[in-house]
Every structure is written in structure tokens, then in C-alpha cells.
Design brief:
The complex is a heterodimer of chains A (162) and B (497). Chain A is flat and about 60 Å long. Chain A has helices at residues 3-10, 13-38, 50-80, 93-113, 115-129, 135-156. Chain A has two domains: 3-83; 93-156. With 162 residues, chain A is mainly alpha-helical. Helix content of chain A is 76%, strand content 0%. Chain A has six helices and no strands. With 497 residues, chain B is an all-alpha fold. Chain B has one domain (2-483). Chain B is 72% helix and 1% strand. Chain B has helices spanning 2-9, 14-32, 38-48, 54-79, 88-136, 141-158, 163-178, 203-222, 239-242, 246-261, 266-281, 294-318, 324-335, 344-347, 349-372, 378-381, 385-402, 407-425, 431-455, 460-465, 468-483, and strands spanning 180-181, 188-189. Chain B has a two-stranded antiparallel sheet. In chain B, a hairpin with a 6-residue loop joins strand 1 (180-181) and strand 2. In chain B, helix 3 (38-48) runs parallel beside helix 17, helix 5 packs parallel to helix 12 (294-318) and helix 17 crosses helix 18. The N and C termini of chain B lie far apart (46 Å). Classes of the chains: A mainly alpha (162), B mainly alpha (497).
Chain lengths: 162, 497
């Protein structure tokens, strides 16, 4: 196998994922063995590390299977690539990253400025980000949603809010 | 007889009816609005109903489950987007029929046959749950371990196009289930010194993240925030014509219940198989299949709703959930201190009856809400996602927090949401992970018990695998895995293709 070919196989997502999983499985395997043998008088039948050991062995076998699937896919793709152009759907990564980021800020802000204020702010920011421009809708919906949620969960259902 | 009286007594219990109605109404909207799933609603409900008594909680959840599975058909018919995965097949004929201006008719068929499917499934559950429990009572720890493994193997291989990806998802779930203090020895496992992880990964925050927040991120990543709704014009349909497909529908319902009982297969597969059968047994469809054949809607909707009863069979008798929603319902049982499994029907007959009554009453609400409100909610389906998604995110936060009142769980929910999003993007099914997360503890405990018991025997292998039930389960598990090996099913067209 030439260097180029190797690189091509390694670029396959299944191959990459299988390498990640096999690493995780080996770490868990070692974790189980080391912890089991360093605990005094521990029989395998009772050991908390028996099940992780079993799962890691399963995981190694499945990783190998995933690796083989990846190599096969790559071979098949090579055969067909000349007359096939893959259509890739557009993924709005920037938007996703922003939502994750703003959710993280919301999570941290809840502790500092409280649930009600942070939720109203979070709703307004996300509404605007996702394309809502009418000011009265922004104010009305974010305030009313927070109020309704507070009423239903805290007052009616006695569910504790963050 | 006693059981029949008990189940039907709930039909006149106003409080019970009220809670089923709350669930049913929530299910109607959640199921119909694409982007909100029944699984998400059930996961959120687990946290909300945490402090309720088990009876009210179960009534509400059954209402959501039954009506939510049905109402996926509303958006499938009106906007060609299935509100729930199990309605994917309904879009094939439902939307073409709606485009011909017959959406009211399509909705009516979907409603009536969802009712028939649900009722059939619940009745089958009623009849065969006890005999299955009796067999399950003879299970040894090894059998319990193997049945869980069998469940994971079927879920893993059926829910993904890739053999390895489905199973890998299950393995990730098992690893996550092991985090926390070990129940037998009391030592912390895989917690990496993080104090908050000692209590383990809470099922509720994990599920809310995997099905709620992940869905929000997925919809945003697709950038598809608007949809076109078909107009609903009322046209009268003769009841005799309507019920013309009753005999066939029983066949589809039987397929649905059977598929539902197989762990992991669930609604989409059942609907697909029933649709396949419909194309074979229907000689003169009202329109060619795929162009608005009523028979297609009947097959899909009967089968996916019949799955509900089917999926509850292994959950109640073996504590193995048949799909993601039943996995969540299983966690409701644990939250309320109930222990599903072979002894469940004997020790908790009243809860079993509550589930049956909830399912049957839910089916009636399918009829009432489906015929009454179904055609009218087309405007709500069209609620802009830019307003819906932020609200869902806030609900996820509340849902994950309310179980244990820990901010750590909210963080966990976000983490699982991100994990679920990437799993979907990379085509790893989430259902096996969910099931493994719920079943991991049982598998671990039973496996160790089996090994401990066998360690005192002279022939260890015989002690572990010598019994007929064990051999059958072992062979079944190996069969599921081997028959799905990539090189054996290379040329076989997968049901998901």
C-alpha cells in the first residue's frame, strides 16, 4: 500500500472513527485490568471492573468491524468515483456553533442573574439570531414564554426551576 | 374477569380521563409539529411528572405516547414532513392525496386506522403479557443478561445502515451507564475524580439532551425553518367505505404489534413492512401506490400505532424496552420505584391495568382529537421554527434540572445534546445508546451474578450456558449478529434504504 493510498483510507470517516473507538476501548481495557489487579483480594465474579472489561472487548471487535467497513467503502468509492459526483447537503455550522455557545452562556448566566432574567434574555437573543425581526413579537413572546413557563412549572406543577 | 372490570373502571374515572386527555392534547401538538418528537415529549414529561403519583404520570404518558404516534401523520399528510419517524411511510401516499385536495379524507383514514392499530396492539399486550412473564420467571441471571444483549444486538443492527455503527452506539451507551458508584462493591467507576459523576449519568438529562436539544441543533444545522401546509377542505366520507379496509388492517396491526415487540425495530420498520404487504395484497388500489393510495395510509398508520402495544410487551415482562419511548417509560417506572420484569404483572397488577386503560382511552382520544382537532391544527404545525426552537431549549433546561434539582444535570443535558447531534450527523443511531444507558445497570449486575454463581461449580461453562432457555437466547443473539454481518447481507436491501 503506497503512502498516498494509506492517506486516502485514513481520510475515510469510518476508519477515523474506528481508530478513535479502538483507543477508547483500549483505555477502558487497561483501566479495568489495572484497577482490578491493584485492588486487594478481588475476585472477578464480584469485580466492578468485570463488565467494563467485557464491554471493552466487544468494543474492540466492533471497532475492527467498523475499520473494515470503512476500507471497503473506500474501495467501492474508488471504483465508482469516476462517474459519480457526491452531492453534499449544506450544513449551517456557524449557526450551530453559535447556538451551542449561547446555550453555554445561558447555562452559566442562570447561576449569576437567575432563571427568569437569563431565560428572557436567552429567548430574545435566539429569536433574533434565527431571524425574527418584529420588535413587538420579540418582547411579547420572550416575556410571555418566560411568564407561562414560570406559572405552569413553578406555580401549577411545583417543579423547581434552575 | 377482575382484570377487565379493573381496566374499564378507569373509563369512568374522571381524574384518570383528565390526565390522559392532558397527555393526548400534548401528544397531538408535539407529534404534529415537525422538530418536536414523542420521545422528546416523553423525556420532558418524566421530569415534570417526577413528583406526581405514578398513576397520574402513567396516564399522561400513555396519552402522549398513543396520540403522539398518531399525530405524526398530520404533518406527514399536510406538509410532507413526518411529525414522527414512524409516519415516514404515511408521507408516501398521504401527501399526494392531500395535494389532490383530499387531505381531510387522508386525515380521517389515518385517524380511524390509528385507533384500530392502537386498540389491537393494547389488546395483544393484555392477552400475552402474562404468559411471557411466566416464561421469564424461569430466567437465571445469565438469561437476563443475554436477553438484554439480544435486545441491544437487534436495536444496534436494525436501526442503522451500518452494522458496526449501531452496535458501537450501544457500546457507548453501556460505557456511559457504568459511570458512577458501583452498586455491588460501592467503589466509584469511570468518574475520573469528578464528584458530581458519582451519582452516575442521570437517564432523564441524557434523554432530554439526546432527543430534545440534539433535535434543536439538527433542525438549525439543516437551515430548514419553514414549510408549506396543504389546505384542508372538508369532504364527507361514507363510514362503510371508511371501514372497508378493516380486515386488511388487522393483518397490518398484527405486523405492527410483532415488529413493535422486537427490541429496536419500532414504528418506522413496522409501517414500512405493512406498506410492503399492502402493495402485495391490494389488487386494485384507489390510486397507484405512492400517488395517493388510501390503502397505503391505512397500512402505515395501523401498523405504526399497533407498535405501541407491541413495544410495551418486552418492556413490562422483561424490562427490555422495544424502542426509545418505551426506554423512557421504563425510566418513569424506576423513578416511581416500580420494577418492571417477570414479576411486575403479579406484584403490580394495578399499574399494568393503568397502562392498558391509558392505552385504550388514548386510542379513543386519537379518534376524538384526530377527527375534531386534526384538520384544524394545520396553522399550528406551521408555527415558525425560529420561535419554537428557543422555547424547546428552555423546556429542555427545565426538564433536565427538575429531576434532581442539580445544575450539573443541565450541563449534562447540553453535553448529551451535542453528542446526539454529532451522532446523527455521522449516522450513528441514538436509540441503541438510549437502550444501553437504561439497560446497562441490569446487564452489569446480572452478568456478575452469573459469573459468581458459576465460579463455585465444577463445570463453569455448563453452569453458565447449560440450560435450554440460555442456549436459545445465546443462539438467538449470535444469529442476530451473524445474520447482519456486512458480508452476509451485502446484496440484501435494508429496510431503511
Amino acid at each position: 500500500m503506497g503512502n498516498n493510498e494509506k492517506r486516502q483510507y485514513l481520510s475515510n470517516s469510518k476508519v477515523k472513527e474506528s481508530l478513535l473507538f479502538i483507543t477508547i476501548a483500549i483505555v477502558i481495557l487497561l483501566y479495568s485490568l489495572i484497577n482490578h489487579y491493584t485492588t486487594k483480594d478481588l475476585q472477578w465474579g464480584l469485580s466492578p471492573y468485570l463488565f467494563p472489561l467485557l464491554v471493552s472487548v466487544f468494543m474492540i471487535s466492533i471497532s475492527i468491524s467498523l475499520f473494515v467497513e470503512g476500507i471497503k467503502d473506500e474501495k467501492l468509492r474508488k471504483k465508482e468515483e469516476i462517474n459519480k459526483v457526491e452531492k453534499k447537503e449544506k450544513v449551517y455550522w456557524k449557526e450551530v456553533i453559535f447556538v451551542i455557545f449561547i446555550s453555554l452562556v445561558y447555562y452559566l448566566a442562570m447561576d449569576i442573574i437567575g432563571f427568569i432574567f437569563s431565560t428572557t434574555l436567552f429567548l430574545v437573543i435566539l429569536f433574533v439570531f434565527l431571524g425574527e425581526r418584529r420588535k413587538w413579537i420579540l418582547v411579547l413572546i420572550s416575556l410571555s414564554t418566560t411568564a407561562i413557563i414560570y406559572f405552569i412549572f413553578s406555580v401549577l406543577l411545583h417543579v423547581m426551576l434552575p | 374477569m377482575e382484570s377487565i372490570i379493573d381496566v374499564f373502571s378507569y373509563f369512568i374515572d374522571i381524574r384518570f380521563q383528565f390526565f390522559v386527555l392532558i397527555g393526548a392534547t400534548a401528544g397531538l401538538f408535539v407529534g404534529a409539529i415537525p422538530g418536536l418528537s414523542v420521545t422528546m415529549a416523553t423525556a420532558l414529561l418524566v421530569s415534570i411528572t417526577y413528583s406526581w403519583n405514578a398513576l397520574d404520570a402513567m396516564a399522561t404518558i400513555m396519552g402522549v405516547f398513543v396520540v403522539g404516534v398518531f399525530s405524526g401523520a398530520i404533518s406527514a399528510i399536510l406538509i410532507n414532513i413526518p411529525g414522527a419517524p414512524s409516519s415516514v411511510v404515511t408521507t408516501l401516499d398521504g401527501y399526494p392525496l392531500a395535494k389532490k385536495g383530499r387531505s381531510y379524507e387522508a386525515l380521517k383514514y389515518a385517524t380511524v386506522y390509528s385507533f384500530i392499530g392502537t386498540t389491537f396492539g393494547i389488546l395483544v399486550l393484555w392477552v400475552i403479557a402474562k404468559p411471557i412473564s411466566n416464561v421469564a420467571l424461569k430466567f437465571t441471571p445469565m438469561d437476563s443478561f443475554l436477553i438484554c444483549l439480544f435486545g441491544l444486538a437487534t436495536v444496534g443492527t436494525l436501526t442503522s445502515k451500518s452494522f458496526s455503527k449501531g452496535l458501537m452506539s450501544a457500546m457507548i451507551g453501556l460505557i456511559l451507564s457504568m459511570i458512577g458508584i458501583d452498586s455491588v462493591m460501592g467503589t466509584p467507576r469511570l468518574t475520573f475524580g469528578i464528584q458530581d459523576l458519582q451519582a452516575g449519568i442521570g437517564t432523564v438529562p441524557a434523554l432530554v439532551g439526546l432527543f430534545g436539544f440534539a433535535e434543536v441543533l439538527t433542525v438549525i444545522s439543516e437551515g430548514n425553518l419553514t414549510a408549506q401546509v396543504a389546505k384542508v377542505e372538508k369532504n364527507l366520507i361514507n363510514t362503510r367505505n371508511m371501514l372497508k379496509y378493516f380486515p386488511q388492517s388487522i393483518y397490518y396491526a398484527a405486523i405492527g404489534t410483532f415488529v413493535g415487540a422486537l427490541p429496536g425495530a419500532g414504528g418506522p420498520v413496522a409501517a414500512f413492512l405493512a406498506y410492503g404487504q399492502a402493495t402485495k395484497i391490494t389488487k386494485n388500489p384507489t390510486a397507484p401506490f405512492g400517488e395517493g393510495a388510501v390503502e397505503g395510509i391505512v397500512a402505515s398508520e395501523t401498523a405504526n400505532n399497533a407498535c405501541i402495544g407491541g413495544a410495551l410487551i418486552p418492556m413490562l415482562t422483561l424490562a427490555i424496552p422495544g424502542d426509545a419511548v418505551t426506554a423512557i417509560i421504563l425510566s418513569v417506572f424506576y423513578v416511581h420505584g416500580l420494577q418492571p420484569g417477570p414479576m411486575f404483572i403479579q406484584t403490580n397488577p394495578e399499574m399494568f391495568h393503568v397502562i392498558l386503560a391509558g392505552g385504550l382511552i388514548g386510542a379513543i382520544w386519537v379518534l376524538i382529537l384526530g377527527l375534531g382537532l386534526g384538520p384544524k391544527i394545520s396553522k399550528i404545525i406551521n408555527v415558525p421554527k425560529r420561535l419554537l426552537l428557543p422555547v424547546v431549549t428552555v423546556l429542555c433546561v427545565i426538564g433536565s434540572f427538575s429531576g434532581n434539582n442539580r445544575m450539573f444535570d443541565v450541563g449534562l443535558m447540553f453535553a448529551f445534546g451535542i453528542l446526539g447531534f454529532f451522532m446523527r450527523r455521522l449516522e450513528y443511531p441514538v436509540a441503541p445508546l438510549t437502550l444501553a444507558l437504561v439497560l446497562g445497570g441490569t446487564m452489569d449486575a446480572n452478568f456478575r451474578r452469573a459469573i459468581s454463581l458459576a465460579s463455585s461449580e465444577s463445570n463453569k461453562l455448563l453452569a453458565l450456558f447449560g440450560r435450554p432457555i440460555t442456549i436459545v437466547l445465546l443462539v438467538l443473539t449470535i444469529f442476530v449478529l451473524v445474520s447482519n454481518l456486512p458480508f452476509l447481507r451485502n446484496k440484501e436491501k435494508k429496510v431503511f434504504d
